[in-house]
Structure formats: structure tokens, C-alpha cells
Design goal:
The complex is a heterodimer of chains A (about 625) and B (about 110). Chain A is α+β, with helices and mostly antiparallel strands. Chain A contains 19 helices and 17 strands. In chain A, strands 3, 5, 6, 7, 9 and 10 form a 6-stranded mixed sheet that branches. In chain A, strands 11-12-13-14-15-16 form a 6-stranded antiparallel β-barrel. In chain A, strand 5 and strand 6 form a beta hairpin. A 5-stranded mixed sheet of chain B has the order 1-3-2-4-5, with helices on one face. Classes of the chains: A alpha+beta (about 625), B alpha/beta (about 110).
Chain lengths: ~625, ~110
């Protein structure tokens, strides 16, 4: 055994000695220090300038930025020119040369950032020397593959060395001959790009830089890029970092989920058959619309036989629209006593019709009114009254839309994410600039604080669109040449509050706990501390949180809430939660869990409503 | 051009330079052009200083053992890292221009 160990040891020594004899460069050849440039480089660049030091965003790595940050963005004009369709460029050799220089200088900025005057002791700068050397080895490898480029670089080195030796080298501008070479190659690249951009077909290209925000509630919400559009300022919203107490919104949400918990507990008792009754009984718009439709029908009857006028057309069209909505409300009333039918199925069908018709009604009515001139409208007392009464009823109707939507999404889409129509985000006015390719602004600015309400995990999308002469002449939207997505996240520690419904289950036995079911729905509020990562989307998706929980079950079934305090652990943006709590009224412990699917409509029957985020 | 960053051996003493924590280029052939290129590329280097040691009569035996340059017979120059590990070896038959010399210096920074 000893013999074999000795042989093994000797073999290891030999291999170690051989390894020592290989050079660092040989090692580099064996181990891929930098991946080859196989990815399509981004035409858009972005820097998180509110961070100190500023962070250049690497689009190849699913970037994450601070949710309250400011970004400086721009277009890499050289890459853009290289990416334009070949058919539009008359000199393929120039394009080839541009592509070569772009590839060669792809790490230019990183190298230049590392270059500084030499010191006599490597120890202090070992890491930056290593980083610099890795980048430069790639740089020289690319140069060595191209004899004409190599000759050009040799000439530039000689130029720099000659200047150093005769003391005319500008050390402030270049720091070293390597910086001299790189900066001169950059100038050459810009010259080649300019030559191409001055070609007739290329010079007629126009460019747009557009930015959108995608939140849980809305998609494709435009956001302003200073210098690239003249959109009005968006809604200011700074996501707070530390949430230490429940807000007024939390309190309102808690009241809502209290009612819903109560309704759910009743629904469970009745095997969910009461759900179809719960909703119509809560529709406050029913009475209002009964009167409104009667009024509209009377108005229509009064004008029967009269000559067609704008006001009369308005009344007739209004009657039809209002009747459609009223019909949808009536269906709830009719169906609530229907025996034998599947209540969930009924509700899904009726709910969808109601939400669709009632949501679009205000815009449709306003559109009808806009077809009547102010004079004609002022001359018709009936039209004015009908419109005013509609406005009054509409506020009640829209509250009912929220109620039905909440239940609808919970019931109809229980296990699938939804496209919420809960909150129409503030729309910006203005337009994006259509700039000529030779007049692209050097940079633009995005202030995320002016992009409205947003949450961790929401995304910003930045698009680069080019429009050729033909696109412009035919008013076509053009070609999207680059489309980058950045995730927004609170970075480092932050806290947030969350309101939702939990399922509570008493632990042990207590004479005061008279609950018959194993679980009871209860409203709950939590304050949780979390950590946001700048580098790991996976971590941000798992999004663990730990904190304090307050809930109000009713374990003694006396109809009044039992205030309970405990600890909570949450995952996946509070979708999953679990914890332990102490019921102060029954002096008993219980455990709980919550499953909150990502519904965004306020006041869901099951789920968390996050009201303060950071 | 004068070799301003080069210790020529003989008559110079290579020891002080070889023990500096900087990047070194050791030229082991009697070729002024190569020594000149090495000296050129040691001018105003980035991050860490560079110096050249030119052994006109080849690498002495004691340094051969110390540095363990693979296949020394075909080497014309080699670079040493600040910790005196061999970074890269420039061989006979290679085009020894500024780019090649730079590459050898850079490899010693890894």
C-alpha cells in the first residue's frame, strides 16, 4: 500500500514540476480567460450614474439596476452604422474595416479605465495588472490575426515611443503608449464610421431611442428619456427603503381583506355555493342603474318621432349603452337564485361580461358626448341630465367593477398569472424624437423616480429603432435594431409591508378556541425585511423575507377579531408566507400560511396586497 | 536609440533588476534589435514598471535553474512576472515586433 502511495506522490511531484515549467502564457492558452466574442454586441449602452462609482450596465448578463436610480443611456453610433443593412452601404470594405475595429476595441473602455502610470511595486496593483493583462492579451490576439492591423499598431507604438524619447509625449492624455495606440485606433474607427455615415443612403437614416416600463399592472408604459423625446414628466414615485409601520393604505387594505376573509369563511361553510350570492348582494350600482336606464328609456320615448338631432342621437345611443351594462348587472341578480348550476362557472361567465362592458362604458359615453356640439348639448336639458346622472352612477359602477374584478381574477385565474386592468397607469403626452443618424445626441437620461409606481422585479425596456428613407416616406414604424431589458430592484436591505389573507390553524388545545374547522381565513399584515441583489435574478425571484406579523382570526367565534402577533417568513415576493403567532384573546398559539398569487387588483379574496414597497 | 531601461550583462549586474517586484524582459541572445524592441516597450508602461536585462552571452547556468525556461535553446527572450514566474517566451523564427514584445510583457502580468 505504502509503495503505491509513494508512486502516486512521485507522479504528483513530476506533474507539478512540469506544470511549473509552463509559462503563464501557456496557461492562458489552455484556460479560456475571456470568452470569445460570439454574442451580438448591444447597440445601446447604459450607465447607472446615481451609483457611486457609476456602473456600466452589461446587457449580456440580465442586468439589474436600483429601482430609484438615474440612468445615462446612449447609442453606440459606430456599432449602429455597422449594423445597418448591408444593401444600404456602398463600400463593403469600409464596413468590414469598421467591424474589425469594433471587435478589436470592444473592451477599450475597460482597458483605458485600468491604465495608470506605473509603480515600482506590483503588490499594490496586482489585481488591476492581472485584469489589464487579461484584456490586453485578448486585444493582441485579435491584432495578431490581422497583418494590416498589426502593422498599423506597430506604427502607432513607434510613434508613441519616439515621442516619449524626445519628451513630446502627452502623458496627461495617454498615460502610456498602450493608451496612445488604443485611442488612436478609436479615432480611426470613428473616421471609418463617419465615412460610411456620409454615404447617401446611410445619411438618410433616422433613429429613435424609446423606453418603456413593464410593471405587474401595466406593460409598455412609455418613460421619458431626456434628449430623445419630449414626453411630459411622468408620475414621481420614490420607492421607500425602510417601511417601519403600516400606512393608511395598509389599514384600508386590511379592512378589505377582513371582509373578504369573513366572506371566505362563510363560503367555505357553504361549500362555495354562496359565492354567486355574495357578489350581486354587494353590487351598489344595481339600484342606480335601474333608475338611470328608466330615465334613458323615458327620454328616448319622449323624443320618438322628432327630427334627428345630435342631442337625440346621443340619448338613443346612451340608452343602448346603459341598457347593455344594466343587463350585465341584472344577470347577476337573476343567476343568484338559479338552482343546480355550477356557481363558479356562472360567476366566471357573468363576471367577464360585466367587467368588459362596465370598464369600457365611461370612454364610450364620453365619445358619444364628444359627437354632440356644446351648443346642441346645452340646448337639450334631457341630454344634460342623463349625462350628469350617468356620471354619478358611474362612480358607483366602477367601485363594483373593482369588487367583481377582485373575485373574478381569484376565481377564474386562480392558478395563472393575469394581465391586470386594475390601474391604468398615467399616460405621458408628447412624442419620441426621430433624429438623423448623423445628429444622434451623445447621451440621454432616464430618472426612474419619474416612471410612476413600480415594484421589485419590474422591468425597463430600451429600444433602438431605425427608419430608412423609405420607411419615413411610407410612414412605416421602421426596424428595431436593439432591444434591451433591465430589471429594477431595491438593492441591499429594505423593508416592506404586505397585507393579505392567511389560513390559520390553532396549535394544541384551548378551551377558548371553539373553531370547528382545522383552518380559518384571517386578515393579516406583515412588515418584512428583505435583501435585494444587483447580480442574481434568481435570488430576487425567490425574494425571501422575514419579519413581524399581525392578524385577526376569530378562534372563539364570537364575531369579533382576536388580535394576534407573531413572526412570518415569506418567499417569492410574499406569494408564499408562513409563520407562528399568538392569539391574545384566546391565549393560544397558532401557525399559519398564506398563498398569494400575483394578483394586482386591490382587495383580493386570497392573496397579499403589497401597499408599501422599497 | 539608447537603451534607457536595460541592464546589459556583461558588464552590468542583473541581480538588483531581477529581484525587483516589476515585470522584466530577459533577452538571452546577442541581438541589439530585440534588446531595442524590449527597451522600447518598457518605456512608460501601464500600472507596473518594466525593465530589461540583456544577457549578451546567453542566460547563465544559475538563472537557467532559477527560472526554468522551457526549451531555452530556442528562446530569444522571456518575460518574468513581478514574482519571477516566466510569463511568455519569444522564440527563434518569430517576428519580434512591438506587438509581439508587448504580448510577452503583458503575459507576465497575468
Amino acid at each position: 500500500m505504502k509503495k503505491y502511495l509513494l508512486i502516486l506522490f512521485a507522479a504528483l511531484l513530476v506533474s507539478a514540476a512540469q506544470a511549473q515549467k509552463t509559462t503563464l502564457r501557456d496557461s492562458l492558452a489552455k484556460v479560456a480567460i475571456m470568452q470569445a466574442d460570439t454574442s451580438a454586441p448591444a447597440l445601446i449602452w447604459a450607465i447607472e450614474t446615481s451609483h457611486n462609482p457609476a456602473i456600466r450596465i452589461d446587457f449580456s448578463k440580465q442586468p439589474i439596476v436600483d429601482i430609484n436610480s438615474r440612468l445615462t443611456v446612449g447609442i453606440d453610433r459606430n456599432r449602429l452604422i455597422a449594423a445597418l443593412p448591408a444593401a444600404k452601404k456602398s463600400n463593403p470594405a469600409l464596413t468590414a474595416s469598421l467591424n474589425q475595429l469594433i471587435t478589436l476595441l470592444k473592451t477599450e473602455q475597460q482597458i483605458l479605465n485600468l491604465i495608470k502610470p506605473a509603480t515600482a511595486n506590483a503588490a499594490a496593483n496586482r489585481d488591476s495588472l492581472r485584469a489589464y493583462s487579461r484584456l490586453m492579451m485578448e486585444f493582441y490576439k485579435r491584432i495578431s490575426q490581422n497583418p494590416s492591423l498589426r502593422a498599423q499598431v506597430n506604427a502607432l507604438f513607434q510613434e508613441a515611443i519616439a515621442k516619449i524619447r524626445n519628451n513630446t509625449f502627452d502623458k496627461k492624455m495617454y498615460a502610456s503608449p498602450q493608451a496612445y495606440v488604443i485611442k488612436h485606433l478609436d479615432t480611426l474607427m470613428n473616421q471609418v464610421a463617419s465615412d460610411i455615415s456620409n454615404e447617401k443612403d446611410v445619411a438618410s437614416y433616422h433613429v429613435q431611442l424609446q423606453a418603456y416600463i413593464h410593471t405587474k399592472n401595466t406593460s409598455n408604459q412609455k418613460i421619458h428619456i431626456e434628449n430623445f423625446d419630449n414626453y411630459s414628466a411622468g408620475e414621481f414615485y420614490e420607492v421607500p427603503r425602510w417601511v417601519t409601520s403600516f400606512s393608511a393604505d395598509d389599514a384600508a387594505a386590511f379592512n378589505q381583506v377582513s371582509q373578504l376573509s369573513s366572506a371566505l369563511n362563510s363560503a367555505i361553510a357553504g361549500n362555495f355555493k354562496d359565492i354567486i350570492k355574495l357578489v350581486p348582494d354587494s353590487l351598489n350600482s344595481y339600484a342606480c342603474y335601474t333608475n338611470l336606464v328608466t330615465e334613458a328609456k323615458n327620454d328616448e320615448a319622449a323624443i320618438a318621432g322628432q327630427a334627428a338631432s345630435q342631442a337625440n342621437t346621443f340619448i338613443i345611443a346612451m340608452q343602448a349603452k346603459l341598457s347593455a351594462v344594466y343587463g350585465a348587472i341584472q344577470q347577476f341578480q337573476k343567476q343568484k337564485n338559479a338552482a343546480g348550476a355550477n356557481p363558479i362557472e356562472q360567476f366566471v361567465q357573468l363576471g367577464y361580461t360585466f367587467i368588459t362592458v362596465a370598464t369600457s362604458l365611461p370612454a364610450e359615453v364620453d365619445s358619444l358626448k364628444n359627437m354632440v356640439t356644446a351648443t346642441a348639448f346645452a340646448a337639450s336639458a334631457d341630454a344634460q341630465k342623463l349625462y350628469a346622472d350617468f356620471k354619478a352612477c358611474n362612480a358607483i359602477l366602477q367601485a363594483d367593477v373593482k369588487l367583481v374584478s377582485g373575485v373574478y381574477y381569484a376565481v377564474a385565474n386562480l392558478l395563472q398569472p393575469i394581465q391586470s386592468n386594475a390601474t391604468a397607469a398615467r399616460q405621458l403626452t408628447g412624442s419620441v424624437f426621430d433624429v438623423n443618424i448623423n445628429q444622434i445626441p451623445p447621451k440621454g437620461y432616464i430618472d426612474l423616480k419619474y416612471s410612476g409606481k413600480r415594484q421589485n422585479g419590474d422591468e425597463i425596456e430600451i429600444k433602438l429603432v431605425t427608419r430608412s428613407k423609405d420607411d419615413i416616406a411610407k410612414n412605416q414604424p421602421g426596424l428595431t435594431l436593439d432591444d434591451q431589458v433591465i430589471e429594477m430592484q431595491q438593492i441591499s436591505f429594505y423593508s416592506e409591508s404586505t397585507i393579505g389573507v392567511i389560513l390559520a390553524s390553532p396549535l394544541g388545545t384551548s378551551s377558548q378556541v371553539t373553531l370547528t374547522n382545522k383552518f380559518q381565513f384571517a386578515p393579516s399584515g406583515s412588515l418584512v425585511v428583505k435583501f435585494g441583489s444587483r447580480t442574481s435574478r434568481f435570488w430576487n425571484t425567490v425574494n425571501p423575507g422575514v419579519g413581524f406579523n399581525i392578524s385577526t382570526p376569530d378562534f372563539n367565534l364570537d364575531g369579533t377579531p382576536d388580535v394576534s402577533y407573531g413572526g412570518v417568513f415569506t418567499l417569492f415576493h410574499n406569494i408564499l408566507s408562513a409563520g407562528w403567532a399568538y392569539n391574545t384573546k384566546t391565549s393560544s398559539q397558532f401557525w399559519f400560511f398564506g398563498l398569494s398569487l400575483p394578483f394586482t387588483t386591490f382587495g383580493l379574496p386570497v392573496g397579499n396586497v403589497q401597499t408599501q414597497k422599497q | 536609440m539608447p537603451l534607457t531601461k536595460t541592464v546589459t550583462v556583461p558588464p552590468g549586474n542583473p541581480e538588483p533588476t531581477l529581484h525587483l517586484p516589476i515585470i522584466k524582459m530577459v533577452v538571452v541572445v546577442n541581438d541589439l534589435n530585440i534588446a531595442q524592441t524590449a527597451d522600447d516597450m518598457a518605456q512608460l508602461p501601464p500600472i507596473v514598471d518594466r525593465q530589461v536585462v540583456w544577457f549578451q552571452n546567453g542566460l547563465p547556468a544559475n538563472y537557467q535553474a532559477e527560472f526554468g525556461v522551457p526549451d531555452l535553446a530556442t528562446a530569444v527572450a522571456f518575460s518574468l512576472s513581478p514574482e519571477n514566474n516566466v510569463g511568455d517566451v519569444v522564440r527563434q523564427g518569430e517576428i519580434v515586433d512591438d506587438v509581439r514584445m508587448e504580448e510577452a510583457y503583458t503575459a507576465a502580468g497575468l
